[in-house]
Amino acid sequence: MRTRKWWLALVGIVASFTLVAAACSDDGDGDDASDDTTDETTPSGDDVALSGMKGTTPLVDLSDEFKDRMLEIDPALVDFNYGPESYDAVIIMALAAEQAGTDGAEFANYINGITRDGEKCTDYAGCLELVQAGTDIDYDGASGPLEFSGNGEPTEASYGILEFGNTGCDGTKECIDNDKTTFVTATAPSEADVPQEDTNATREGDGEFVVGSLLPETGSLAFLGPPEFAGVNLAIQEINEAGGVLGKDARHIQGDSGDTENNVAPGTVDTLLSQNVDAIVGAASSSVSLSVIDKIINAGVVMFSPANTSKKFSTYDDNGLYFRDAPSDILQGQVLADTIIGDGHSNVYALVLNDDYGTGLLEDLTNGLEGGGATMVGDSVYDPKAADFSAEVEDAKGADPDAIVIIGFDETSRILTTMIEQGIGPQDLAVYGVDGNMGNALAENFEAGA
């Protein structure tokens, strides 16, 4: 199914500059502190080791109102990465179930249509009213305009280009400098809009819409768990406040995806399926999703990831049951390449996590760099569980690049420590990250030596 490889086409990129959706409050003194003056709220020396590091992640300019709603669900949030996508995944599926009149597998056939070619609506209550009146809708959500193709993924996406500043979220540690963030909109070409192939799954519904989550409580992407769980829980809350799905309250059963090392996901999926979930939100990791996708779709259950970006999913034989509202990494590869080239760099080295996400994004980034006249001078594909990364960092230093990209997860903090020790950290050389590591959690891990 879904065999048309639209992702081989190049994307159009339109850049616009605005303020980022704040991942934390900017309580420090900012850049107006002079070079020779410090105070108790301005970090210096080792405290600004990550300052200037840039990276890309799927992100829209979140409103304060939406962030406040997320924080009401989880006041401890320090990042919002993939929270809007998790929220939208649940809202879209609930509306599709309403339109289909069932929580059985058939509602999958309505998911793509919820996001396009109808009357615009932006919240569950308003969209539900239209659906119940028999109106075709076009849901534009917290994560953007969506506009799903027939293969169940967005044809439009917004990326935030994030940068660590030299003042901290609380005046004592670094965080993403919101004032330096820009947004880039990536749009797939017309040939990306492939026809839909409906599912032939026959799983019956029972009238109660139940969502299971397969999201990271543990493992190398655990920093993404809090905003993703908050997004799911916020959506369930608002759905039920508006009357639920099919006249009943929707329900969320939370589950841990872990990562490919701790192998938690298969057991979680078994547990969720035994509890008759209608859909599973997750996983965050592309490799984890690939390890369980067949089990989920063979059960006739919808799988909807807020964060999978591997291009393998664009053509996966999924019987019309897999969806994602995170864009394919072919888009991120081009956005990141354009960012690096736009910053004046032309000789790039990559330190790359050894999994489907890492090696796939490396390929997309290399294509983007070479298409823009830059060169990938080398790469090291590493084991994220390695005791240290000295050899990989030495290879990067020896290649004499003018920029280094780290495509990884939470092990990125240890890689950065080694890079700084070898004199090629963000204070010495341009360093870039990606959606798997860019966020305030990276700074927290770095400061903690994790």
The CATH H-level superfamily is: Response regulator
Write the H/E string, N to C.
EEHHHEHEEEEEHEHEHEEHEHEHEHEH
Instruction: Please give the count of helices.
Output: 12
CATH fold-type name: Rossmann fold
Mean pLDDT: 88
Low-confidence stretches: 1-46
Q: Kindly estimate the percentage of residues that lie in beta strands according to DSSP.
A: 15-25%
Describe this structure in words.
By secondary structure, this protein is α/β, with parallel strands linked by helices. The protein has helices at residues 64-73, 83-100, 111-114, 124-132, 225-241, 265-274, 286-298, 329-342, 356-371, 390-398, 412-421, 440-448, and strands spanning 12-16, 54-58, 119-121, 137-139, 156-168, 174-176, 182-187, 210-214, 251-253, 279-282, 302-305, 322-324, 347-353, 375-382, 403-407, 430-433. The protein has one domain (1-342): 3-Layer(aba) Sandwich (Rossmann fold). Strand 8 (210-214), helix 5 and strand 9 (251-253) form a beta-alpha-beta unit. Helix 2 (83-100) runs parallel beside helix 4 (124-132) and helix 6 (265-274) runs parallel beside helix 7 (286-298). The longest helix has 18 residues, at 83-100. Residues 1-46 have low confidence and may be disordered.
Task: Break the fold down into its secondary structure elements and pairings.
Blueprint: E1 12-16, E2 54-58, H1 64-73, H2 83-100, H3 111-114, E3 119-121, H4 124-132, E4 137-139, E5 156-168, E6 174-176, E7 182-187, E8 210-214, H5 225-241, E9 251-253, H6 265-274, E10 279-282, H7 286-298, E11 302-305, E12 322-324, H8 329-342, E13 347-353, H9 356-371, E14 375-382, H10 390-398, E15 403-407, H11 412-421, E16 430-433, H12 440-448
Parallel strand pairs: 2-16, 3-4, 8-9, 8-10, 10-11, 11-12, 13-14, 13-15, 15-16
Antiparallel strand pairs: 1-7, 2-5, 5-6, 5-7
Helix pairs in contact: 1-5, 2-4, 2-5, 6-7, 8-9, 11-12
